[in-house]
Model the fold of this input.
Amino acid sequence: MTQGPARTRAVVSAVAASALTALAIATGGAAESAVALTAPRNTSAPTISGSRTVGSTLTANPGRWSGTQPMSFTYAWARCNSRLAGCTGVIARSRTYSLTEADRGRRMFVVVDARNRDGTASAQASTGVIRLGGNAPQNTIAPSVSGEAREGQVLTANPGTWSGGAAMTFTYQWLRCDANGGACAGIAGATARTYVPTSADVARSIRARVTAHNAGGSRSLDTSPTAAVQAGGPAGQIRLPDGRVSVPVESISLPSRLVIDDVRFRPEPVRTRTRPIAIRVHVSDTHGFVVRGALVWARSTPLVTTVPAEQGTATDGWVTLVVRPRAPRPGLVFPLRRGLAVQFYVQARKAGERLLYGVTATRLVQVDTAAP
Done:
């Protein structure tokens, strides 16, 4: 009996299906396993190359993998203890990793993830214990601080000279100390090579702590203390008992100027032409510093008193000039009557400067008079 073409095709398909089923049963699903093996499979474990010393760079080598190509790799580094326990979270995700001081005495662990179109797989590698490399820094010339110890002026830490390896870096921490360089404490945020003293540093000394780093480790050394920091402004400052600061007139220069900020007479009012008159004059500058050594002079206008010689202000900025009423002359009489006053022209200057030039200060003042 002859079968038609359609019947023949159906029989072939059934036989083929039965054969594939029998093959799968006989091989325990080997056909299905053959498909799964196209995902990444590690055949040679990853390795880590590079010196296991602080400052060196480690490189993760992915090892060998089978599976569908192309295949890509990613890396995740962790830091563990010497028994590969107590590991940190991921600290780097690149193929290379540079060892730091934090890795010393630990072991580095890297996870390599292989990925292709059919799946992913992972393998790991680890190092031995990380050691110091080379010699730790040794100081041969001590670090120092340069610059004027004054509020608002820049101080610079000079690291000095160190041995122990060419690859050397430095970090800095500025310290505020007492006037003798003791009882030091770190200044928050002051970690640059330079530091500008503030009002909190006035009357205190400053040190810089210089730390040298290389592959062998790190060492720190403090500089000698600066002199006590002076308040900002002119040189030669002296702090007075009332808290104000006295400066020499030589340190005053334009655009700063002298200021006659107080004038006092004794007696006042003046009741006699036979007794001397004391004129107390106080001099400061336009920044509020008390000025010592300023040359002060005064004369009455009109000229009804004697004219004293110039005198320099004391450390507290005060100077006392003494004048006497002149004997009456036609048109020039020192008045002694309530409601009248005698005017004085007062001048303060710096030696060597021309009158009415430079930092000179002038002021018109008056003293009251009264009947005897």
Summary: The chain has three domains: 41-129, 138-222, 238-368.
